[in-house]
Write a structure and sequence with these properties.
The protein is α/β, with parallel strands linked by helices. The protein has two domains: 280 residues, Aldehyde Dehydrogenase, Chain A, domain 1 (3-Layer(aba) Sandwich), CATH 3.40.605; 194 residues, 3-Layer(aba) Sandwich (Aldehyde Dehydrogenase, Chain A, domain 2), CATH 3.40.309.10. The protein contains 16 helices and 22 strands. A seven-stranded mixed β-sheet has the order 14-15-16-13-12-18-19, with helices on both faces. Strands 9-8-7-10-11-21 form a six-stranded mixed β-sheet, with helices on both faces. Strands 5-6-22 form a three-stranded antiparallel β-sheet, with no helix packed on it. It is globular, with a radius of gyration of 23 Å. The termini are far apart. The structure holds NADPH dihydro-nicotinamide-adenine-dinucleotide phosphate. The site of NADPH dihydro-nicotinamide-adenine-dinucleotide phosphate has 31 residues, from helix 8 and helix 9.
């Protein structure tokens, strides 16, 4: 397998943005350099070359941004009606629709996902914005009965929580930032976003576009920098009311600790080691590509990737043979190669981590059936890799690799598959492939996880939502429950 090179030229707008000397923070409607004057380099993972310089934010930049967000929260933004916030979200959607090509070119260059894949994510972004536009006009409290003697009317009101700290990982910031921005604009909150130092550019560009569209100054601020500096400062800031964090379980734990300073509300979307269960009666025409792309999409850098593929023994050989044929159809290449289906992994440390897990798998006695090597070139390309003969005790079945490594674990009956699926500290995604609905529902009920797919993998709809349990975090993304966490409930008693 070889890598393919760039065959697609960046548009003028993306090129102009990427060629800026330094990408500053966006605070209170302005581009603001780091208070310290320091910068840090961000790398194009398709080439391994430095792509841009980012402001290296620290606690003082975060403090400045949080003050801006607090001022905006208490200013005229507070008086915007639900209809005005809804119209704003609709304008944001229209503008992103028009500017999507520019944004995916920035994203592809910055974090390595192929443009071909990013183009397919547009409907999901548009749905998310429609969802939040609709939510803006449906926030409501209740009128309640009570048992208080005399005439007392009681009701609840919903009010925006305040300043939201949004900490975003590198694996898809263009879309994932809108789980926060959408809810902030719909609810009347304000936010300070801290994207990953490895993929900040689409978040910075979106912040500028939001200002052009009419989002008031200070409502959406972005501070770039290292996680342990800027990210920690945001999680620990006493004037941030709530943190929306997506990232690893380990970092999530440190965010929880930092957040205790003012008892912040938290939403945590953390790691996973999801089980994808292929029963003997599955339609393999669908299960093979579905399970494969449940792992290899985004080069395995998806939190709910179904990396443990549990296959019932009667079909293990056929499934494996067909899977290996499918893997041959994948094209790993430069993110600006329009024929690439998979891009590089995000960074040299991530590449090293993935390759070290391949060594771990081999040492533990699993059979590496394909892949396992770095591909030629200076980018961070790894071959899609398949291990067979994996047991659930092996580290490659227990630890999150976050790369294109799929493990096949055989099982005899459905109860055993459920037990293996549940023998994990994580509980984020999972799937079952079976043509028997009773079998599928038995598995759905049996697996202790936040999201289950049946005869498909990876659909996310904001109306339905998804979220994790166990060490994969808490708080759902999407559904009415998502909006509720950007609001608090006020109980009101009125003596008549
Ligand atoms: P990290 O946990 O390393 O980083 C996530 C974010 O937290 C980044 O913005 C990072 O900044 C920041 N951060 C790092 N250290 C701290 C700190 N001490 N305090 C506050 N913020 C900090 O995760 P990755 O970026 O490596 O992303 C991969 C992980 O995210 C995987 O484990 C994956 O499962 C999980 N994930 C979960 C998703 C979900 O929805 N459940 C979705 C996507 C990813 P910086 O990068 O600059 O260090």
């Amino acid at each position: 397998m070889t890598t393919f090179q760039q065959n697609f030229a960046l548009g003028e707008q993306a090129q102009g943005f990427l060629s800026r000397e330094v990408h500053h923070h966006v605070i209170d409607g302005k581009r603001v350099p780091a208070a310290s004057g320091r910068t840090l380099s961000t790398v194009n993972p398709s080439t391994g070359e430095v792509l841009a310089q980012l402001a290296a934010g620290d606690a003082s930049d975060v403090d400045q941004a949080v003050h801006a967000a607090r001022r905006a929260f208490s200013g005229p933004w507070r008086a915007w009606t639900p209809y005005e916030r809804q119209a704003l979200l609709t304008r944001v959607a229209q503008t992103l629709d028009e500017r999507f090509e520019e944004l995916i070119q920035i994203e592809a260059t910055d974090m390595g996902a192929p443009v071909s894949r990013l183009r397919t994510t547009k409907p999901a972004l548009m749905k998310m914005l429609s969802f939040f536009a609709a939510q803006a006009a449906t926030i409501s409290g209740e009128t309640l009965m009570n048992g208080i003697p005399g005439s007392v009317a009681t009701m609840t009101l919903k009010a925006p929580v305040g300043v939201i700290g949004g900490i975003i990982p590198w694996n898809g910031p263009l879309n994932s930032q809108f789980w926060i921005i959408g809810a902030v604009l719909a609810s009347g909150c304000t936010t300070v976003l801290k994207p990953s130092e490895d993929a900040s550019l689409s978040v910075l560009r979106v912040a500028e576009i939001l200002l052009e569209v009419g989002v008031p100054d200070g409502v959406v601020n972005v501070v770039t920098g290292l996680g342990k500096e800027a990210g920690h400062a945001l999680a620990a800031h006493p004037d941030v009311d709530r943190i929306a964090f997506t990232g690893s379980t380990q970092t999530g734990r440190s965010v929880i600790e930092a957040s205790t300073v003012n008892i912040k509300k938290l939403q945590l979307e953390l790691g996973g080691k999801s089980a994808d269960i292929v029963c003997a009666d599955a339609d393999l025409d669908k299960a093979v590509p579905g399970a494969a792309m449940g792992v290899f999409a985004n080069s395995g850098q998806i939190c709910f990737a179904g990396t443990r593929v549990l296959v019932q023994r009667p079909v293990v050989d056929e499934f494996t043979a067909r899977l290996l044929e499918f893997v041959k159809t994948l094209r790993v290449g430069h993110s600006l190669d329009t024929a690439a289906t998979l891009g590089p992994v995000i960074s040299q440390p991530q590449l090293d981590k993935v390759l070290s897990y391949v060594d771990v798998g081999r040492t533990e006695g699993a059979d590496l059936l394909c892949g396992g090597r770095r591909l030629e070139g200076s980018g961070y390309f790894v071959e899609p890799s398949v291990f067979a003969g994996v047991t659930n005790e092996m580290r490659i079945a227990r630890e999150e690799i976050f790369g294109p490594v799929l493990s096949i674990l055989p099982f005899d009956d459905v109860d055993e598959a459920i037990a293996i699926a549940n023998d994990s500290e994580y509980g984020l995604g999972g799937a079952v492939w079976s043509q028997n609905l009773s079998t599928a529902l038995r598995v759905v009920h049996g697996v202790h996880t936040g999201t289950m797919w049946v005869n498909c993998y990876g659909y996310i709809d904001p109306l339905v939502g998804f979220g994790g349990t166990k060490m994969s975090g808490y708080g759902s993304k999407g559904s009415a429950a998502h909006m509720d966490t950007y609001l608090y409930t006020k109980s009101v008693y009125i003596q008549l």
